[in-house]
Predict the structure.
Amino acid sequence: MKKRIFKLALAALMLLTAVFPALGGGGAAAAGTAKASDFTSIPALAERLDRVLAGDVSLYGDIHCTALVPAPLNTRAVPLGRTYYVKSAAGNVYSGSSCYIYANAVYATLFGDVPFHGYDAGWLNSRRVAGDLAEAAFESFSRLGVGFGALLRTTANADGSYNGGAGHSLIVLAYDRQGITYLEGNGDGKGLVRVAEKSWDSFNKTQLSGKGRRISFIVQPTQAYLAALASGGDGVREPVGYFTQKRLYRGRFMDVSAGAWYAAGVREAYELGLLEGQSADRFGPYGTVTVAEAVTVCARFLSGYYADGWDFTARGVWYESYYAYCRRWGIDVDLGSPDSPISRGEFARLMSRALPEEALTAGTAPAFGDVPPGSRYASAVNRLAASGVILGENGAFKPDSTLQRAEMAQVLARMADRSLRGK
């Protein structure tokens, strides 16, 4: 059974190049340039992350954990060998030095736990998701479900214990196919806690293979804990299959206002790599969806659901690779001319074929008066409606109407994220 991957919803999103400005070789973000709203929309967690970015981490200079140690971002190096202490929410006290203990302190500030050596004894809110990895990559991280806040320990020691300059500890903030953004303590001896951005190749060279290290373990907060932290809000995603966030949105499209009924759908579909804009800063929410565009997003959904890393690079007409991929799955894509508009009913029929039974949500389909029981698309419409993927309006679905890009975004987002269904 596939592992359900969990991610936090992002409050605001931006162009990838703005989030990873130095992907070619990596770099450290200056103090004040990173903020919690770039990475989480859960207010309680954002407040904790802002404290970390401001240097207020729960790190102590004494075993009784009474003398709080200030840890300002990018101000001074931590002398190797100096011992500090950190306390978990369960009251356990651990000690360590440099990046090792700073990563634990940051993790404890964010999630109330101390991963220590990667063992689960004493944890309240966390779980271990991986261990003993030779390299980091988008594909492996996605399949493992590595998410925001995951603590990575890179070391030559099998148990992940501290071993001076031969290891490093860091906390994941975001990643996509191009690279990874993370928090690190005493990064290269240049600061106590800083934000670093690197391509995967650079990360592996500087943190793993190039240093003779492996990832000894990865620990991250549980979905249940983050859901509780969000207090029932929509700050927690419930992705289906292997869907993971691939990029940041941060208000990318100027024609999608934050209060628009389709804003959440556009954001989610863009973050998951299902939709592109009509230009760099325009989405075109009321544009008509063509058959070729519908087949394209169907293929992207399937590939994202199974995280198969399929290469859709065009080798002729731009949409041919998407048509070919859907046909591999036995999906009927002979829906008319690729450039012709697709109807809402036909889009429902197409996308229903891409949504596996295991990804459905139990429910009862509403009775759409304009969807005849024996019609070509009736079963598909009812199947998606019962899962809250399509909603209709005033008892009607309008199956013969052309599909708008905003509507397509909503359907895709609800298919990929259970938390958005019925909304």
Q: What stands out?
A: Residues 263-420 form one domain.
